[in-house]
Fold each of these.
Amino acid sequence: MKIQQIREFTEAALVCGETNREKEVLSGFASDLMSDVLRLDTGDVLLITGLCNLQTIRTAEMAEVSCILFVRGKKITPEMIELANENRMVLMTTEYSMFRAAGELYLNGLAPVY
């Protein structure tokens, strides 16, 4: 699923990574536990989370996650944007709950990691 489609299905705002909006992700993973994210062994995954801090970006970098969707209207800080840009990540935010965002994406064809 392309980043632009993810935006449309979740009514998300693209915060950074505009040049990658045609990029494709193969699967999605929803978690607020960064230890679970570190266990991912797949690339091209969308992380759906409500944990909005620098550690989330650093964890995504280590897990080779290139796209993060923050739920529940979380506000992304300038420091997070700077770090994400350094790692060529896409950051988006939506007012949807994690359950609704994951459900909408699954219903529209995004495969789960597990």
Amino acid sequence: MKVSPQDQRLIHNLEPSKFSKDGFLGTDKRRLEEIIDDDLRTLKKAGASKELLVQALKDAYQRAKEAFGAEIEIGKNVKAVFHESMGRIPSPFCKDGLFEKGEAVVTDTAHNISLIITSLGINLIEKHDFFQGRGCRFRIDPLDAVKVFQLLPESKKK
């Protein structure tokens, strides 16, 4: 299968670099399309919408950022803290722009789940359906995120 120059550039941008250190794929050996398809299928199977998930990620990120490093409660058994970082990181998808490097760490003690939310990570999900590869420090596992933000439909909560 022949890969277009644009796709070759994207694949290169997803690999470890001076900007992303470990890259966006982690230890995941699947093709980008497979990663995206699997994660979207997981969301659909859970009965959660990407739009609600993205909004929950944005809200948690913003609330943690506004707390200036203090740990805050964002839900039952769910806390968040923001870690400031200097600089910006480019999106691996060309023309998406630069994103601040700070991160919100959201921890759900009931499910023993932690998510690291970045402005770039939110953008990758919102615009490209890309939750990042397994083994990537910044991967937001869709099922974990659905649990943390309690986005399961009423019929699936039982």
Amino acid sequence: MNRETLRYGGVAVGDRLPELKIDITTGLIVGGAIASRDFTPVHHETKAAQDVGLPDIFMNIITSNGLMGRFVTDWAGPGATLKSIDLRLGAPNVPGVVMTVTGEVVAKDDAAGTVDVSVTGENNVWGTHMAGVVRLELPKEA
């Protein structure tokens, strides 16, 4: 994690963020669901998930959203301000998979001081779990 905040002028379109591997565990899935007050059984009970055709419980979108935001803000530093996340879900994250998160700066807005980062999270079993764009504001001064 970057302890220094990136500055707007120091970021360029095409910059790639350091890859992050996340072990998907039962605790991460259940903890994320509970923290976001999502009590849907498929995020807590194996049998409920199996009844809908999956081998085990699976991650909810709110946890995925949080992991996407964390990935970008860890890179940008504590002085960055998250402005928006546009997230699309794909393959499920279940316990035992590893999700690799990658990102690239795809746009800058000089007037607003914002940076758009395209983010993808691929799991090692079914492929793309999440894809989207995170917009954040970076300080302009040096």
